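Dear H.,

Thanks for agreeing to be a second pair of eyes. The structure we're designing against is below in token form, covering all 248 positions.
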């Protein structure tokens, strides 16, 4: 029960403290750009290559299902394209980002914690929430939606190429937007934005409470990645369920 309360409550408490500290102390936009490069710039190739492979797998599944049930991938292409835009593009991109950037944030902050650099920052009139956490949160809110967009584009182009080269199907059938509307784009944007907020918070919670030595750094890094990944899946489910209940 304590772990469940910590999973849901700790990031919320940290977000409240970070917001209050950021409003009181201000946020270094230079540090935000540094963290945006760390999160977005260093993750872009991982996300785009991973999503390109994912698009190839997706169109392979679509082709298999089409040949089995309807005989032509052009019939199922638009439905899979909507699934990619609304569900899989933002969430899989966020999971890939959590695996790299979430681990980096948790490892860096836990190393600072076990080396007592966080306490030293507080003793020198600094605030770890505004100086360390807030720039990472801003970077997540900006970087994850951008990475999700690039990842979805990479998956789409890969699917189009595989459909044409491997299956002899007009790849444009996979890009048919007839089922994609504004609600799909809104759902995708909400998922990407919420994941972008949650990933740095989950990593910061794990990193800032690390105590001990190298073993604690490893444990905090693992906890940060696992918590961030599970949080992204939970956000995906919650947003999808809300849109289903609202019939959007």
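And this is the sequence the design step returned. I haven't edited it by hand at all.
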């Amino acid at each position: 029960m304590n772990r469940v309360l910590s999973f849901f409550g700790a990031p919320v408490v940290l977000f409240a403290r970070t917001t209050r500290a950021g409003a009181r102390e201000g946020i270094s936009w230079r540090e935000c750009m540094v963290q945006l490069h760390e999160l977005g710039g260093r993750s872009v190739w991982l996300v785009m290559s991973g999503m390109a492979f994912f698009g190839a797998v997706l169109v392979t599944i679509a082709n298999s299902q089409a040949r089995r049930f309807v005989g032509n991938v052009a019939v199922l292409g638009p439905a899979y394209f909507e699934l990619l835009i609304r569900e899989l593009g933002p969430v899989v991109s966020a999971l890939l980002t959590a695996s790299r950037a979430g681990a980096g944030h948790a490892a860096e902050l836990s190393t600072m914690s076990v080396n007592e650099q966080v306490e030293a920052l507080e003793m020198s009139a600094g605030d770890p929430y505004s100086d360390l956490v807030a720039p990472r949160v801003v970077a997540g809110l900006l970087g994850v939606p951008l990475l999700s967009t690039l990842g979805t584009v990479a998956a789409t182009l890969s699917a189009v190429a595989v459909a044409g080269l491997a299956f002899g199907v007009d790849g444009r059938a996979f890009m048919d937007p007839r089922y994609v509307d504004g609600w799909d784009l809104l759902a995708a944007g909400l998922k990407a934005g919420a994941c972008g907020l949650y990933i740095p918070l989950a990593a910061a919670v794990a990193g800032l409470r690390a105590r001990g030595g190298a073993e604690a750094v490893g444990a905090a890094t693992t906890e940060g990645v696992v918590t961030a990944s599970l949080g992204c899946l939970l956000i995906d489910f919650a947003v999808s369920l809300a849109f289903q209940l609202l019939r959007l």
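Two observations from my side: The longest helix spans residues 73-114. The mean pLDDT is 88.

Warmly,
E.
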